[in-house]
Amino acid sequence: MKKGLIALSPLLVFIALYLVTSIIARDFYKVPITVAFMVASIYAVIISGGIPIKKRIDIYSRGAGTSQMMLMIWIFVLAGAFANTARVTGAIDATVNLTLTLLPPNMLLAGLFLAACFISISIGTSVGTIVALTPIAAGIANHTGMELPMIVGLVVGGSFFGDNLSFISDTTIVATSTQECRLSDKFRVNSYIVMPVALLMLLYYLFLGINTHLSQQIGEVEFLKVLPYLVVLITAVIGMNVMAVLTLGLLLSGIIGLCYGAFDFYGWMRAMGDGILNMGELIIITIMAGGLLELIKYNGGINFIIDRMTRHVNSKKGAELSIAALVSLVNVCTANNTVAILTVGGIAKKIGDQFGVDNRKCASILDTFSCMMQGIIPYGAQLLMAGGLAALNPVSIVPYLYYPFLLGVMSVISILFRYPKKYS
Asked: What's the pLDDT score for residue 237?
């Protein structure tokens, strides 16, 4: 037990240094999140005793440079370049003006949430949805005077609707493959849990937006400048790779910017460079989080969690709760919902088979709880991306993540009250 707690202690150091001190100071900008990760990373290297320090650093570097981490960094680079080029070109302002023209003010929140749900279920990824909609959400907040963290939280919440439910989501594919059930069966189980939450949130945003008014005059809609975002949304919905989507949007926004005289060729290069630099903190956080979590895994932290969570299971309900807690805790340690499902999928199948848990319900629990947890951790890719694009501290978005929190509550209720009965 002592060894397991020591293995997990770097995560506790990070939480204490960043979250606890920020709460005490009542200011989440007081301690930079990069510094908290740096201190926790140094501590993780120090406590990994018994092996040469060079090997400890090699393990850390291996986690920081995995293919998944590098893919995420490339997405950050392209997203930064595209977002800033689109801003300088005027594409974001034009898209916001078109949105404000098409939707009455009291429908903006509900409309944006529906858009996030629709795009995410179409493309199966929360990151792609956040990249597409966060700049538009920030522009709407600026025109309406609504709180920016709240409207960004709305987009993040809606993005996890599809991440959790879509047939082409990697979490759905991994959850069903590890539990040996069909995608359609897992979708049916999930829909009983997810649809009431989504409907409730839609009604809430309709109510919240009743008294919304525009605080600024709507500018002229320049339809050609809207084209980059329309192409990004359409290509994302039809399933194009997110990196290809961002590259296409970057080229289009650059060409349109050149045609409108927003910048010359060198100005375009500078706009892209500035956008990439704006993502620097996110890239550094991603690298350090990957290394830190790899050391935790190497030292047995995740195995310790699995052992502790499965030791006292003795009923079907207890089995379902242990699977939910297991995937949630591993997700906190890996900051990746797909990796969390892969890590515990095998043990979850064994627990489920031993206590008679329906494979379809087990797959739903893995997917739902991992998406819920991924949606609220401030060092996860989704909140880092949303915070970076909206120029916000990711922690400031967390109190407004109503959808993931409510999804978690509904998921716990579904276990405690054996819902849906057919699959319980």
From this structure: 66
